[in-house]
Amino acid sequence: MFDSLNLLPPDAIIGLIAEYRNDPREPKVDLGIGVYRNAAGETPVLDVVKRAERRLVDTQLTKSYIGSAGPADFNEAMRDLTFAGTVANDRVAMLQTPGGSGSLRVAAGVILRARPDATIWASDPTWANHVPLLGGAGLDLQPYTYYDAEKKALNFDGMLESLREIPKGDIVLLHTCCHNPTGIDPDEAQWRAIADVLVERGLIPFVDVAYQGFAADLDADAFVIRELAGRVPEMIVANSCSKNFGLYRDRVGALFVVTGDSSARDAVQSQANNVVRTIYSMPPDHGAAVVAMILNDDTLRADWIEELTGMRERLREMRQLLHDALLEEAPGHDFSHLVRAKGMFCFLGLSPEQVSRLKKDHAVYMVDSSRINIAGISPDNVGHIARSVATVL
Ligand code: LMR
Question: Contact 168/133 with Cβ under 8 angstroms?
C-alpha cells in the first residue's frame, strides 16, 4: 500500500531546522523558523514559566482527563487577555487547543460544519502553513491584496478594494499584529477602515493571534479584535501561546468563536468539542495549566509582562542593528522597512536565488521568500549577516 506514496520535499520552514543543525560551518546564522532567541542564540524557558511549573508540580493532584475544551480557568483568562470585556461572555464558545495550529484546525472543522462552501480569504502573502493547514482540512482559500513588495509597505488601498470584492458571508483571515511573514501591520485608523468594510460586506473575521505582546503591548496588539468584537455579530479568534509564553513544544493555544447569542454559543461549543473529539479527543494540559497559573496570579502575571517586554525590546533593537549594518555594507539599498516592521519577521526583499547563495556560500539561513526571523540576529553575528547580504546583492 505505501509503495504508492511519493517522498515529499522538506517543509519550507521546519525543514530549515535540521539543515541548519547539520551544517558544520562557523560562523552560521539561523534566521529561519520563528522562535525567539536571546543574544546568545538560545531559546530559554521563561523564568516565570519555570516558577509556575515548579508550583504546578508541587500542587497538582491529578492528571486525569479534563475534557475536549480544556480547563475553564485557562479559557477564561485567555478570553479576557484577548477581548478585555469587549464582547458578552455568553456569546463566546472557547477551547484550549494544541497550539495556534490546533486552534486553526479546529476552527476549520467548525467552519466546514457551519458553511461547507465558505471561502477563506487570506492576505497575500500569509504564514506559509495557513494554506496547507486550512486547505488540508478541506477549506477553499483565496488571496486578498496586502503587501506592496516594491514599496515594502502595506498596500492599504489595494487591500480595501480587494476586501470589497469578497462575496458576503465569506471569511477573512487577519493577523492581529506582527504580520507573518512581512511584519507590516495596519495602524489603528487603517484597522478601523478595514473593520468598516467587513461590517458593510457582512464578512466574518477570523483573526490569528500568534504574537500578542510582540508589537507594541498586550492591549494595543489586540486592537483589531476588540474593535471588531463590538461591531460584528460573529467572529473567530485563534490564539497561540507558543511565542509570548515561549511554550513552543508544549503546544498551547486557544480558540474563541463569537456567536450571535447564548444558544448559538451552546451549539457552536458542542460542535467544536465534537470536532476535537474526532481529531485528538482532548488537548495536552501541562502548558495550559502553566499559562492559567501565570495569568491568574498578580505577581507571576506582572513578571511575565516584564519578560515579554524584554523580548519585544530586543527584537526592536535587533531590527535597528541590522538596518544600520546594512546601510553601511550595502549603501544605495533601502532597508528602512526593517525598522517599520513589527515583531519577529520581515522580508529582506531578496530573490530565491540570492537566498540560496546566502545559505550555500555564507551559512546564513532564511525562508526562500527571504523572510528573516529578527530574533536570530545578535551583536556578534550582525556584521556577518550584513556583509553576506551585501555580497549576494
Ligand atoms: C514560523 O512562521 O516560523 C512559526 O510560526 C513556526 C511555524 O510553525 O511555522
Answer: no
Closest CA to 241 of 255, 224, 227: 255
Whole-number average pLDDT of the chain: 97
Q: Which residues, other chains included, contact 176 with Cβ-Cβ below 8 Å and sequence gap of 6+?
A: 207, 208, 209, 211, 212, 221, 222, 223, 224, 225
Question: Does some domain include residue 77?
Answer: yes
Q: Average pLDDT in the 83-105 region? A: 98
What's the domain count of the chain? 2
Strands 147-148 and 153-154: antiparallel
Look up the CATH number of the domain holding residue 356. Answer: 3.90.1150.10
CB 365, CB 344: distance < 8 Å: no
- The confidence score (pLDDT) of residue 329 equals 97
Mutate to test the pocket of ligand 1, among 123, 129, 248 (most ligand atoms within 8 A of CB): 129
Q: 127 CB less than 6 Å from ligand 1?
A: yes
Co-location of 283 and 325 in the same domain = no
pLDDT of residue 5: 97
Locate the ligand 1 atom nearest the alpha carbon of residue 32 and give its number: 3
Atom of ligand 1 nearest to the CA of 367: 3
% of the chain residues with pLDDT over 90: 99
How far is the first Cα of the chain from the last one, in angstroms, to the nearest whole number? 48
| Residue 78 banded pLDDT, cuts 50, 70, 90 | very high
Question: 164-185: per-residue pLDDT in tens?
Answer: 999 999 999 999 999 999 999 9
Decide whether any atom of ligand 1 lies within 6 Å of the 13 Cβ. Answer: yes
**Catalytic status, residue 127:** yes
Spatial neighbors of 137 by CB under 8 A, at least 6 apart, are 105, 108, 109, 112
Q: Which domain holds residue 39?
A: 10-44+313-392
